[in-house]
Specification:
The protein is an alpha+beta fold and about 170 residues long. About 30% of the residues lie in helices and about 30% in strands. It contains three helices and five strands. It has a five-stranded mixed beta sheet. The protein starts with 6 loop residues before the first helix and ends with a strand.
């Protein structure tokens, strides 16, 4: 199907690529022992959370923003300069990600450390971070069973490189 000049077709292609990236990311979390909680959870018209999983090992609710791109390896370049993330407080008594001890080097999946010449969190700007934080608050209001759990914000970057998909998850991205 040729979608040249058809904006609707391009949007459909982007939505399909995005759904593929979300599926791959969700499979990675499940492989790591996380339990799926929700996908494409909407907080009204304000924001949408791509993936929500519960990490039983860490007793943590994980909110993940997924960015899927079609790119060659040469697009990845070097790591962009790290931006200052906004302070976020989900609920009283929770420690913001910036105050937690850094994760051990072995905590990330091998693909993430091997391919991380970039910071996935840099593809999510402050506005998107604020929307995800607001959506997470609304999710916790509607699902009190997670209200006392730790919350972590991850960013997954999925690349389609010639039909092969590579995923990198940055934990505690913001």
């Amino acid at each position: 199907m040729d979608n040249s000049g058809d904006k609707t077709g391009k949007k459909t292609d982007a939505l399909t690529l995005g759904a593929i990236g979300e599926n791959i990311t969700l499979c990675r979390y499940v492989d790591e022992g996380c339990r799926p909680v929700a996908r494409n959870w909407r907080a009204g018209r304000v924001a949408e959370i791509d993936i929500i999983v519960f990490d039983e090992k860490e007793d943590t609710l994980v909110i993940c923003e997924v960015k899927t791109r079609t790119a060659s390896r040469s697009h990845r370049g070097g790591a962009p300069e790290r931006r200052q993330a906004p302070q976020q407080i989900i609920a009283p008594g929770r420690m913001p990600a910036s105050d937690r001890a850094p994760a051990a080097a072995g905590d990330q999946a091998p693909e993430a450390t091997r391919a991380a010449t970039f910071e996935a969190s840099d593809s999510v700007d402050r506005r998107k971070q604020a929307k995800n934080i607001l959506a997470a608050r609304r999710f916790l209001e509607k699902h009190p069973e997670y209200a006392e759990k730790n919350v972590r914000f991850d960013v997954a970057e999925v690349y389609n490189i010639g039909g092969a998909y590579e995923v990198s998850i940055t934990k505690d991205a913001f």
